Amino acid sequence: MTNPVFWVGVLTLALIYGSLAMVLNVESGWGGMWDLGVAGLLASGAYCYIILGIDDPDLGTRFVPGLPMWLAWPLAAAFTGLVALAIALPSLRLRREYFLITTLAFAEIIRQIAVIQADLTRGTTGFSSLDRPFDTLVEPRDYNYVLLGIVAFAALVVYLITRRIGTSAYGRTLRAARDNEALALALGKRVNRMRIKTFVVAGVLIGAIAPLYLFYIRAITPQLFAPGITFTIWTALVIGGIGSIRGGLVGAVVLIVFTEAVGLIEVDPQYINILVSIEPFLVGLLLVLVLRFRPDGLISERNAFGTRAGRRARRVPA
Amino acid sequence: MKRVIALLCLFGLVAAACGGGDDSDEPIKFGFLNGQTGDYGPWGAWALWAAEVAVEELNAAGGVLGRTVELVVEDNGSTPEGAVSGYAELTDVDGIDALGGIESDGMLAVFDTVHEQQLPTICSTCGTTELDTTGGDYVFRIIGSDTDNGIIGAQVARDEGYDNVAMLVELSEGTISPADVFKTVFTEQIGGTITEDVRFDAGRSSYSAEVARAFDSGADAVYISVGFETGVPILNEWKRRGYSDVPLILTTDLLSPDIAAVVGEVEGASAVVAAAAYDTEGNPAWDAYVPRFEAKAGDPPEIGFYDAWQYDQYIILGLAMEKAGTTDGAAVAAAIPQITNPPGVEVFTYASGLAELQAGNEIDYHGTTSNMNLNAVGNLQSPVMAVSAVTDGSWQVRDYVELDPTLEKPSS
Amino acid sequence: MELVLDGVRKVFGGVVAVADVSAVIPQDQVTALIGPNGAGKTTLFNAVTGFDPPDQGTITFGGRRINGLPPWRVAELGLIRTFQTPVGFTTLTVRESMLAAATPWFMETPRGAFGLGPGFGRKGRKLERDAEIRTGEIAAELGLEDLLDVRTDELSAGDRKLLEFARQLMAQPKMLLLDEPAAAVAPANIGRLSQLVRRLCDERGLGSLIIDHNLSFLMQIADEVHVLDQGVLIASGPPEAIAADPEVMRVYLGEQAAEGAGP
Ligand SMILES: Nc1ncnc2c1ncn2[C@@H]1O[C@H](COP(=O)(O)OP(=O)(O)OP(=O)(O)O)[C@@H](O)[C@H]1O
Ligand SMILES: [Mg+2]
Q: How many CB atoms lie within 10 A of CB B360?
């Protein structure tokens, strides 16, 4: 291997995206809420975490709460849940296409707020030189391994949470209402409330993941939360398989590792322009190939929920 | 899951095949981490051409420390995330010895890592005010800060002899911050008076009340910091109300032909804009750079594409490394201000600087964009600014000025 | 307990889909609602179940006013309807669909998923076990036991109709509202359907309100028939009386004759 440290970084990013994609799967894959505003929720969590932790009056912000990391982190998750609630209440009345546009618009509004409310967020300057958990315990050059450990643990927790949701009666009814909302209503399902709660849960989880992304980037500016990040998460989920339990994680690892591996291709500098313009194309090609040969993603919803049922079916005498 | 692991291994193999070892016979590697795609994509090609011109110049003069220099290009997609992963690739995989090309957002994202890894880094096109106070150890900025755009307005007001200035400021990120800097520097350091500070949201149907407040306040001049979209209706209002006797100090967003056309229609009106500029007048570095860039790009250098700064940074890195006599990051970083600042023989090209260094002389590099003198926090002391005025309905550069280094950046 | 419609009216644009319909539908008998295409039958169902509330009039069930309630609330009160086209929960298996229909709301929350709600612990596990047992029983009763692990979108149209039924029963209704249950069902299976509807009513006291165009099927099982034409309730009574009603014959036979012209 080239240099393990490099791949440690790649894997760290992949697991962060994987965690986000697994959460996206809960709201969009199972909940049927096609959310294009993941970046907005991520921004809410990240900014809340950063602002609560500001302890240096010289940064020139209006508030200097100086909360410790362990307190700012859960508060950021809770705050993101509230933001999700504020988005869900008006948007969930809308049909799917409008929901897409509304969530995208909300994400852009949140990003604009981060730009304009400079006395809170320091505008386009943002914050850099962030504290990271356990960063005083190891040499900076070894910190990448620590961060990978933290992120892997988080991905495991997110996986266990989303798997629990997916295999519970709650997840089953979410999928039912996604398939046929009218029928779910006719069976007494509180579809709207259930979706609002799901959106809030996704918000809390995204808010909890947000600081990890900051630990990786080591700085925060509104630019970080441009819509591109939402599309990367969606791409990961589509590659992995919408509706499956661990599809988002697998898809993110494949997508990010592939993207970085493509970036490692070396050519003569005079062809660099061509290579650079080909890179996004190669990633697109990956997506096309996956969708061509595995239209439901590497792990499909059918496999995720079918195998268990299938095994049970085999036990039943014909 | 097995499939995924297999895939991962495959990528690992590909990566292993692509990577290289570490050897002092190997070329010296200068990283170029830049938005070749994404928001900065339109500038990407120009930036890369300029960087290539510089590296070719280094190699034509025999390289650095007797080794050839290789430009390792990494696209950051114009995002902080791309900067982080691109940076990791440049340092962990390619093992670069110095870094250039990066933009503000990306610079802030890799700032701490740069320091931890002691990588000499030049931020050639960063405007971010965050670097106003934090650079100088490993990160150096050879272009004016966004803060300087506010300071130059105050400097122009001072030099024109205006004591009382009114302000018209649109409430948006890009327009507030230069206005705030202008106001602070003009009142606190120059001793001027703000007769009226009018701030408003964009997108109004009319700005007549705002324009009236500013222009009726008895000011010698009016400083206008608004976006282009707002600038046109405001100047139309200014024209309609016949305030032509009050001169205008505008910000760079308004350095556009449409604005010049409006101003040009008004008899006796005067409007100036100060904007970043290349150091083109009687500058041998510039004269040497232009034909080589044009040969590569097919077009002459263009201030709007920021190419010349991308060139200057690699000449500086080459000279600093030569001065340090090693690729060691700490030593090279320490050498950067030594070769950009006086005392020393003023040099304008890599070859001449190299010759002086080899002769054991101190050097003071003067680049294509300015004299490159850096202050204690690694910022350019006196970026070159062009003051343009409207003549015959279009913008014409009236004169080039250096930012007055005695005017300090106010802390945010 | 009964479903009472009092002056129910629904207008779409200029079209009066349901015109001041009043009727009393006992909860423990089989009631048929017939009428030609576009008579307003489905509209009436939508009004009762909260999907499309009436413009005027009141609807009560068991003495409780239900118009204005959201569909899920009407369903919780025990009025469980089917839809004219049985799509079902396309990607869920038969078993999942049936279990989903039986799950109480408090287990369908994030809290419930982690066993933190009222469905916590032993109570929750018992509910799940009971639901699984009932799934087996009802599937057996309907002949769906071999299809439990087949996805809904892979079922035949007839089996999907049976699944509609199975889901309804899982939801433990007080009264069934069936919109064209016999459509697309093989003639051989219609007998089975009739038996089932009758048996549910006679043995368990679970009545139904059934819309269908298959008159022979309805006349066989209905205790009472209501006839709707252009939104107006033109006749109500026992099947024999309705069959003999000349007005109904005119409305209906005209329609049947017109339909007979088609394939
Ligand atoms: N959402 C709607 N908007 C406008 N008109 C509607 C709507 N729903 C139904 N209608 C009209 O109301 C009338 C009654 O329709 P409805 O579907 O209730 O008839 P039906 O008796 O169920 O007919 P069928 O036997 O064909 O199912 C028809 O004229 C129909 O076109
Ligand atoms: Mg109908």
A: 6
Domain coordinates in residue numbering, chain A: 4-225
Q: Which secondary structure element, helix H or strand E, spans residue C135, and what is its range?
A: helix C121-142
CA dist A3 and B90 (Å) reads 11
Max Cα distance, chain B (Å): 78
**C220 CB-side CA count, 13 A:** 16
Residue of A nearest to B175 (CA): A116
Residues B338 and B260 in one domain: no
Q: Residue B229 belongs to a domain with what CATH number?
A: 3.40.50.2300
Q: CA–CA separation, C197 vs C187, rounded Å?
A: 16
The ipTM value here is 0.91
Indicate whether C122 belongs to any domain: no
Domain shared by B235 and B342, yes or no: no
Tell me the nearest-neighbour CA distance from A158 into chain C, angstroms: 14
User: What does the alpha-carbon distance between residue B136 and residue B380 come to, in Å, rounded to a whole number?
Assistant: 10
- The domain that holds C198 is classified in CATH as 3.40.50.300
Query: How far apart (Å, rounded) are the C-alpha atoms in residues B311 and B309?
Result: 5
**What b/e string do you get for B222-248 counting C-beta neighbours within 10 Å, with b at 16 or more?**
bbbbbeeebbbbbbebbeeeebbebbb
Considering only CB atoms, which chain B residues are within 8 Å of A126? 105, 108, 130
- Does residue B262 lie within any of the structural domains? yes
Tell how far the Cα of C239 is from the centroid of ligand 1, in angstroms: 25
Is B39 part of a structural domain of the chain?
yes
Q: What pTM was computed for the model?
A: 0.86
| Atom nearest to C52 CA in ligand 1 | 1
Whether C112 and A170 lie within 8 Å, measured CB to CB: yes
Provide the 3-class DSSP secondary structure of residue A296.
coil
The verdict on B111 and B247 lying in the same domain is no
Q: How far is A242 from chain C (nearest CA, A)?
A: 13
**How far does residue A136's CA lie from ligand 1's centre (Å)?**
71
Query: Is there an interface between C and B (3+ Cβ pairs < 8 A)?
Result: no
Cβ–Cβ of B16/A1 closer than 8 Å? yes
| One domain for residues B137 and B153 | no
Number of domains in chain B: 2
Measure in Å the smallest separation between the Cα of C253 and chain A Cα atoms.
33
Task: Judge whether C75 and A186 are in contact, CB under 8 Å.
Answer: yes
Let me know if residue B300 belongs to a domain. Answer: no
Q: What is the pLDDT of residue C254?
A: 65
> How far is Cα C124 from Cα B63, in angstroms, rounded to an integer?
76
Is residue B412 in some structural domain? no
Angle, helix A191-217 to helix A4-24, in steps of 10 degrees: 160
Q: Do C149 and A309 touch (CB under 8 A)?
A: yes
Tens digits of pLDDT across chain A (318 residues): 467 888 999 999 999 999 999 999 999 999 999 999 999 999 999 999 999 999 988 888 888 999 999 999 999 999 999 999 999 999 888 877 889 999 999 999 999 999 888 889 988 888 988 889 998 888 888 899 999 999 999 999 999 999 999 999 999 999 999 999 999 999 999 999 999 999 999 999 999 999 999 999 999 999 899 998 999 999 999 999 999 999 999 999 999 999 888 888 877 766 777 777 787 788 889 989 998 899 888 988 887 776 444 444 433 333
Look at residues B219, B300, B239, B236 and name the one whose alpha carbon lies nearest to residue B50.
B300
Q: From CA A40, how far away is CA A109, in angstroms rounded?
A: 8
Using the mean position of ligand 1's atoms as its centre, give its distance from the Cα of residue C40 in Å: 5
Looking at the structure, do residues B113 and B90 belong to the same domain, yes or no?
yes
Domain that holds residue C198: 2-93+157-229+249-261
How many structural domains is chain C composed of?
A: 1
Q: Do B6 and B126 sit in the same domain of this protein?
A: yes
pLDDT for A104-119, tens place per residue? 999 999 999 998 888 8
Where in the sequence is the domain holding B37, given as residue range(s)?
2-143+306-365
Closest by Cβ to B15, choosing from A223, A224, A261: A261
What letter represents residue C179's amino acid? Answer: D
